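A reminder from the course coordinator: this example appears on the midterm review sheet, so study it carefully.

Given structure:
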């Protein structure tokens, strides 16, 4: 494996909560070995990252600069960064037909409930975001701690899929 960082794309439907959290966490803990990106299958017009998600990231000491909601179509363009791994973090996106990803990256599904869903109070939703951040961080810490041999392209997909069982 080269010294180049592994690019990981996190997908969700609107790219406003779980995928944004995952991108920011991986960029925070990736130690230069990993670079996180995020996108959505159908972000709404003028979609922005959920303010509660940004709040819990900042409270955890994670940089939120540059986070934005975007379509997954951006990562299928010829000038897009090459992805080594694509992870869906919501069940809706996992069931959708994904675009062609140049280079045929490894794929995995790590399903998490939507922390912004429901009719709970802002305090309850904030706690849901904290819990989602904690769960994502734990799984991403396992990913970045994998030995180099587990990160080779042939092993990356099975390694990432195994982590979904953690």
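Designed residues:
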């Amino acid at each position: 494996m080269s010294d180049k960082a592994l690019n990981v794309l996190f997908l969700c439907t609107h790219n406003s909560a779980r995928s944004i959290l995952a991108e920011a966490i991986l960029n925070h803990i990736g130690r230069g070995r990993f670079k996180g990106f995020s996108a959505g299958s159908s972000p709404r017009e003028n979609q922005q990252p959920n303010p509660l998600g940004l709040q819990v990231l900042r409270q955890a000491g994670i940089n939120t600069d540059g986070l934005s909601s975007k379509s997954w179509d951006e990562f299928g363009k010829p000038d897009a960064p090459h992805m080594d791994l694509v992870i869906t973090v919501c069940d809706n996106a996992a069931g959708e037909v994904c675009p062609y990803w140049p280079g045929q990256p490894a794929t995995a599904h790590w399903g998490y409930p939507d922390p912004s869903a429901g009719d709970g109070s802002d305090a309850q939703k904030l706690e849901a975001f904290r819990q989602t951040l904690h769960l994502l961080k734990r799984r991403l810490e396992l990913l970045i701690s994998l030995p180099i041999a587990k990160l080779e392209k042939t092993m990356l997909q099975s390694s990432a899929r195994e982590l979904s069982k953690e």
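The mean pLDDT is 87. The first strand starts at residue 6 and ends at 12.
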